[in-house]
């Protein structure tokens, strides 16, 4: 039996071209926020991102790509669970099955712990780039090891640090910084982004990999631009700085990405719009290489 049959609710929301062509990308959602520690509600994020995607302009004049003319396959959301280990196992199996289709994959969260499962579903040589205000490298948080605050530490323990680039951290504890330095995890700092060095540093990292998985925690942005997140942190980067970084992916094969930590209860629509635009840009840049 397919894991898609076992775990997915098959209730798609993204509207797509009905011309019968093969999909250019696949989307599924993970409505999970059971380990969230500050502002719960991220489990409602996937459907809100879809709704925003259906209502933004998806024509990219600089690339001459119009996403209204392509098919985007939406598989709906995973079945609901409040057990982190069960969620992680579920999304790893789903992701591994979908990776076999050789199609760009987007996973909509939900809290950041889901990335421990999704990235595990990709080949081990896949590069990993994460945008996040936090390092998420704690040994445990609130007495559990499978948490949105510790998922990246679990990835390092399982796969090592060599493929990882962390971008934009500005809020972390001493334990995380010590582990980061001990493991020699590569970073692009908040200060480097503000100094305009971020895009080139990211390009340099991407050149080492044939394919990339990227994780976007929306709290990398200042709350002025993205108020609807689970753990907002003041003094973040602007939306323009984020999209300047994203342009660095233009000549890179991004095989998968997740967008996490959108909390609709605290959003005014701007955070969801940013999430939708990330997806739109990433699909368009991928299509421009074909």
Secondary structure elements and pairings:
Layout: H1 3-7, E1 25-30, H2 45-53, E2 59-60, E3 65-66, E4 72-77, H3 84-99, E5 104-109, H4 114-120, E6 127-131, H5 151-159, E7 164-167, H6 174-183, E8 186-188, H7 190-194, H8 198-206, E9 212-217, H9 239-246, E10 254-260, H10 270-288
Parallel strand pairs: 1-4, 1-5, 5-10, 6-7, 6-9, 7-8, 9-10
Antiparallel strand pairs: 2-3
Task: Please summarize what this structure is.
The chain is α/β, with parallel strands linked by helices and 290 residues long. Helix content is 33%, strand content 16%. The longest helix is centred in the C-terminal third of the chain and has 19 residues, at 270-288.
Number of contiguous helices: 10
Within the largest sheet, what's the order of strands? 4-1-5-10-9-6-7-8
Q: Structural class, judged by helices and strands?
A: alpha/beta
Name the CATH superfamily assignment: Ureohydrolase domain
CATH first level: Alpha Beta
CATH domain topology:
Arginase, Chain A
Compute the average pLDDT. 94
Question: N-to-C SSE series?
Answer: HEHEEEHEHEHEHEHHEHEH
